[in-house]
Amino acid sequence: MTQNQAVSTAAPALSVRDLRKTYDNRVEALKGVSLDVAPGDFFALLGPNGAGKSTLIGIVSSLVNLSAGSVSIFGTDLVADRSAAMRLIGLVPQELNFNMFEKPLDILTNYAGFYGVPRAEAVLRAEEELKRAQLWDKAQMMSRTLSGGMKRRLMIARAMMTRPRLLILDEPTAGVDIEIRRGMWKTLKEINAAGTTIILTTHYLEEAESLCRNLAIIDRGRIVQQGPMKALLAMLDIEGFVLDIDGTLPATLPRIEGTTLVASDDHTLDLEMPRAMDLNRVFATLGDAGIRVRSMRTKSNRLEELFVRLTGENADKGPLGNDVPAAPEQVA
Ligand SMILES: Nc1ncnc2c1ncn2[C@@H]1O[C@H](COP(=O)(O)OP(=O)(O)OP(=O)(O)O)[C@@H](O)[C@H]1O
Ligand SMILES: [Mg+2]
Predict the structure, then answer these.
(1) Strands 166-170, 28-37: parallel, antiparallel or unpaired by DSSP?
(2) How do residues 115-152 score in pLDDT, each as one tens digit?
(3) Does ligand 1 lie within 6 Å of residue 47's CB atom?
(4) Is 265 exposed, middle or buried, given 0-12, 13-18 or 19+ CB atoms closer than 10 A?
(5) Is the CB of 114 under 6 A from ligand 1?
(6) Distance between CA atoms of 191 and 87, rounded to whole angstroms?
(7) Quick one: pLDDT at residue 317?
(8) What pLDDT does residue 331 have?
């Protein structure tokens, strides 16, 4: 192995340094973004509307020119060696952009042909990808007749035709119902498990939580937080639970210091408490008040809370409104 190869093996799948983008209308979409995505990672890019996610993805996939900074893909510099960098990437853009009057099989083989994949190989790959996307039985149908979810899966299958080492998806499941979304999650997990690094943007926070190991949160052109998903979730010191109660709740609820207890209806309680607090104390107090808890579940909106806390108007406030130190750049 040459020294050069050794370097690129160790290189991040994506390395972005002090990336800036000012559009012609002088909107500063990116104000110095730096991030690294490790090879093999499943990485989420989260942020509110207009944060700069699509601009970042556009630059990485060479659809948008950068104003300053650098981007490299598996060690290949995007500006110095654009075509080599592009060959490593598969892009699933947010908008459907295939020819609706072509058949899925043709869309895939033509796309591969455009990237120099020999015809016979392209046909083999197309069958494999259409089967993985559960579209093999639609291979010869007019794409226009596919359902919305099928069209989205076709976009992923097409991006995989060049066997990219880095797959980038801009809101791949937007507007797709939960069942199809879960099917797509399974496909993406398989693609990642087979070795492809994946970066996705999404507005579905449970999607990032279920798929991604690492994430960056971007707001107004800056990264406000990045690190492992678990570490970010652990930063939240408040946990929410929904308690189902046997029978009907009394008119007055007991007070449990340090917690917020609210009846959301006659037999359901909404509980928020510090992570470190003992649940037994809560159950004991509820028991003393004649309230029997039949079942409980965690409210799975922690990422949402984190997101609001980091990017919202009260970004300098903790979840209880207490002042927290400025968000660290990196969470170990
Ligand atoms: N082609 C363009 N010309 C001028 N301004 C643009 C262009 N594309 C995006 N912008 C602006 O750059 C900023 C970032 O937009 P971008 O599309 O990157 O955000 P986003 O995070 O992808 O948002 P969303 O979640 O809504 O897709 C916005 O203020 C947007 O109006
Ligand atoms: Mg966008």
Answers:
(1) unpaired
(2) 999 999 999 999 999 999 999 999 999 999 999 899 99
(3) yes
(4) exposed
(5) no
(6) 17
(7) 39
(8) 44
Count of CB atoms within 10 A of residue 150's CB? Answer: 18
Q: Which atom of ligand 1 is nearest to the CA of 64?
A: 1
Pick from 24, 26, 27 the residue to mutate for probing ligand 1's pocket: most ligand atoms within 8 Å of its CB.
Answer: 27
Gap from CA of 164 to ligand 2 centroid (Å): 22
The rounded Å distance from CA 203 to ligand 1 centre is 15
| 49 CB near ligand 1 (under 6 Å) | yes
Residue 155 has pLDDT above 80, yes or no: yes
According to the model, what pLDDT value does residue 319 have?
36
Q: Does domain 3-227 have CATH number 3.30.70.1560?
A: no
Q: What is the pLDDT of residues 195-254, one digit of tens each?
A: 999 999 987 777 888 899 999 999 999 999 899 988 877 776 778 899 999 988 988 899
**Does 21 sit in the ligand 1 pocket, CB within 6 Å?**
no
CA 89/CA 57 separation, integer angstroms: 11
Q: Whose CA is nearest to atom 24 of ligand 1?
A: 49
Would you list the domain boundaries of the chain?
Answer: 3-227, 238-302
**d(Cα 168, Cα 93) in Å, to the nearest integer?**
8
More confident residue, 95 or 324: 95
**Ligand 1 and 240: CB distance under 6 A:** no
Contacts of 310 (CB under 8 A, 6+ apart): 217, 219, 224, 225, 327
Spatial distance between the Cα atoms of 87 and 166, rounded to a whole number of angstroms: 10
Q: Whose CA is nearest to atom 11 of ligand 1?
A: 29
The C-alpha angle with vertex 328 and arms to 236 and 54, in degrees rounded to 5, equals 90
Ligand 1 atom closest to Cα of residue 94: 27
Question: What CATH fold (topology level) applies to the domain 238-302?
Answer: Alpha-Beta Plaits (3.30.70)
